[in-house]
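Title: Comparing notes on inverse folding

I've been comparing how different people in this forum approach sequence design from structure. To keep things fair, I'm posting one structure and asking everyone to reply with a full sequence. Here's the target:
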């Protein structure tokens, strides 16, 4: 008796049961262990460190659940059509694809849920490390310093990382032989990195040693003044700083020659910058 897609779909609401119904025990155990293991790991890390930002990692759960659901339905369809389905876990398939040098677009996009992980899967190690450090540093600063100023950066970093991976996969861009190091990039901009570190240090000292002794109204005034100072400083830098010269695209000039000029000006005597736009002349071509 064949397997029913409907039953497989209903059972897959609990990750792994749909695969058990299809007889794919290893695959079902892998989905079940991943779903509940990741949940336990996030809760444990949040409880031990007291850092509530780890709860954001639970965003992976609906993705794992959906992948398990549609994977069970798809495999059921393949079994109904008479195909032979291998009872291997998704991680085993991933390891096999990595060993063969094949990069799956689906896996790349799934890894991209965590900024930087998709780049690392595609081989862009330093690029992925930069995205990952930036994203979790901003997340940490938001929770540690309670600064909503950094909140707008999270979706920007996440979306840029996600669509950058999508572009790399779609255009099949290979990793260059000498991929620049993230730390080398920081050293090349050490002055700005130093200013950022000094600013963060001042913010931490102010938040931990000064804020507890200030009133709520005064704290709001200081935050407003701080943000205003950033905008004013950026505006003064643009107004008083040197003008940014953008590269100007070279214009290709073309000239329209008359019929008499065309006869006196053969193709082999024209340069690229002086080549004329010619219209087809049946009488002239016929000789």
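Reply #1:
Here's my take.
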């Amino acid at each position: 008796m064949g397997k029913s897609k409907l039953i497989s779909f209903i059972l897959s609401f609990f990750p792994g049961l749909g695969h058990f119904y299809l007889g794919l025990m290893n695959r079902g155990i892998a989905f079940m262990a991943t779903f509940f293991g990741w949940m336990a790991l996030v809760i444990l890390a949040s409880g031990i460190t007291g850092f509530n930002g780890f709860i954001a990692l639970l965003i992976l759960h609906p993705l794992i659940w959906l992948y398990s659901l549609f994977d069970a339905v798809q495999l059921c369809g393949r079994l109904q059509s008479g195909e032979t389905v291998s009872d291997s876990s998704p991680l085993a398939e991933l390891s096999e694809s990595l060993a063969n040098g094949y990069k799956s677009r689906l896996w790349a996009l799934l890894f991209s849920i965590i900024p930087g992980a998709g780049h690392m899967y595609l081989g862009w190690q330093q690029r992925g490390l930069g995205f990952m450090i930036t994203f979790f540093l901003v997340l940490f600063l938001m929770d540690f310093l309670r600064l909503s100023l950094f909140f707008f950066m999270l979706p920007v970093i996440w979306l840029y990382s996600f669509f950058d991976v999508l572009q790399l996969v779609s255009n099949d861009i290979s990793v260059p032989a000498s991929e620049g190091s993230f730390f080398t990039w920081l050293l090349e901009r050490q002055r700005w990195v130093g200013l950022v570190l000094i600013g963060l240090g001042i913010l931490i000292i102010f938040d931990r040693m000064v804020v507890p002794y200030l009133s709520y109204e005064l704290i709001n005034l200081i935050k407003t003044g701080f943000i205003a100072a950033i905008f004013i400083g950026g505006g003064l830098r643009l107004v008083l700083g040197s003008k940014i010269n953008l590269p100007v695209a070279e214009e290709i000039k073309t000239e329209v020659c008359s019929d008499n000029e065309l006869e006196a000006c053969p193709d082999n005597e024209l340069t690229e910058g002086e080549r004329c736009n010619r219209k087809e002349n049946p009488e002239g071509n016929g000789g």
